[in-house]
């Protein structure tokens, strides 16, 4: 079949027809990307960590709007991909929400590096 049937965009209320294989129109394509990122994140972490940590992680990330809190303090807007302990566990930090912050890969690497020194 050379022409796959077009389907309506999955965005609620959007009537735009999209080519077969895609779920969203161009205007709403970012929603599909976001959804995929969440699915990938969930799978990756469900394997290595316990369920409680996955849930906590997601809570912290959504509390911080998914933005790196270290970058935010210096006026940068960066998507956080990790959750970091403000006070490292090696220095008596806990897993309490107040001690956790969303952080980007770059800041996390910098922080981990300086903690080791
Ligand atoms: Zn749409
Ligand atoms: Zn950062």
Give an overview in words:
The model has no long low-confidence stretch (mean pLDDT 84). The chain has 4 helices and 4 strands. Strands 1-2 form a two-stranded antiparallel sheet. It is mainly alpha-helical and 117 residues long. It starts with 6 loop residues before the first strand and ends with a helix. A hairpin with an 8-residue loop joins strand 1 and strand 2 (17-18). It has 2 domains: 1-48, no CATH class; 51-117, no CATH class. Helix content is 43%, strand content 10%. The site of one zinc ion has 8 residues, from helix 3 and helix 4.
Summarize the structure.
The protein is mainly α. 43% of the residues lie in helices and 10% in strands.
First-to-last CA distance: 62 Å
Question: Helix content range of the residues, please?
Answer: 40-55%
- Helix/strand-derived category reads mainly alpha
| Total beta strand runs | 4
Low-confidence stretches: none
What is the string of SSEs from the N terminus onward? EEHHHEEH
Indicate the proportion of strand residues.
5-15%
Side-by-side strand order of the widest sheet: 1-2
Shape: elongated
Bound molecules: zinc ion
Total helical segments: 4
Nearest-integer average pLDDT: 84
Radius of gyration: 19 Å
Main sheet: strands, sense, barrel: 2 strands, antiparallel
Q: How many distinct folded domains? A: 2
